[in-house]
Amino acid sequence: MIRRIPIFSTLLVLAAVGVMIALGFWQLDRRAQKEALLARYAAAQTLSAELAWPSDPARQELALFRRTTIDCQVEGKDAPLAGYDRQGAVGWAHSVSCLLPDGARAEVVLGWSKDLAERDWSGGKVQGVIAPGAGQSVRLIADPPLAGLAQSAIPDPKTIPNNHWSYAIQWFLFAGVAVVIYALALRKRLAARDGEG
Question: How many structural domains is the chain composed of?
């Protein structure tokens, strides 16, 4: 019986199943890491002390959801992007690029509106919350809003998904399905050989 089992195919399937199981456990580990990260973000929201703007990219993630104040020298024009107000209405978050006194740069969301009309703001002090930006960057959500705009939605860690549990289940299911399919295919092959014999 053992000689009739295809060795190469069996080893290949077992290797694939092993990888899938390893990925499932990796997702479980990622889930624990994400839960700790979200707990840290939630704690950051409760801190009243302001943090300096994180000019160093290595410190930006640690600054998320903290409050800060910057002195903004506006570079360029208002650049609206899709966004929400505090009540969840869809509209436009008006964003500007700022040059800071130390030479660093910061993206600032001045506020929210229903229209794309350019807002004129000459710069100055901006208070707000440090939020995730595009890619690995951060941006400042002005609070209070500026340039006559309404308040943009303040970033909330509760909106960050933690799907790692479902990903882990998927990988474990993939592994189980692979074993079942291979077992059925092997059984059919062995039955066909027995029928020929």
Answer: 2
Whether 167 and 143 map to the same domain: the answer is no
Does residue 1 lie in a domain region?
Answer: no
Distance CA 21, CA 136 (A): 30
Greatest CA separation found in the chain? 89
Q: Rounded to whole angstroms, what are the CA distances from 185 to 5, 106, 180, 191, 193?
A: 11, 59, 9, 10, 12
Q: Are residues 139 and 171 in the same domain?
A: no
Helix/strand/coil for 69: strand
Q: Is the entire prediction scored with pTM above 0.70? A: yes
Helix (H) or strand (E) holding 62: helix 57-63
> What secondary structure does DSSP assign to 117-178, as a single string?
PPPP---EEEEEEEEE-STT-EEEEESS--TTPBPBPPP-GGGS---HHHHHHHHHHHHHHH
- Are 173 and 144 contained in the same domain? no
Q: Domain range for residue 103?
A: 66-154
Q: Residues 121-133: pLDDT tens digits?
A: 989 999 999 999 8
Give me the amino acid identity at 114. Answer: K
* Whether the Cβ atoms of residue 98 and residue 108 lie closer than 8 Å to each other: yes
Distance CA 153, CA 171 (A): 35
Q: Are residues 79 and 116 in the same domain?
A: yes
Whichever domain contains 133, its CATH number is 2.40.50
Which has the closest alpha carbon to 68: 108, 14, 111? 108
- Under the banding of pLDDT at 50, 70 and 90, the label for residue 1 is very low
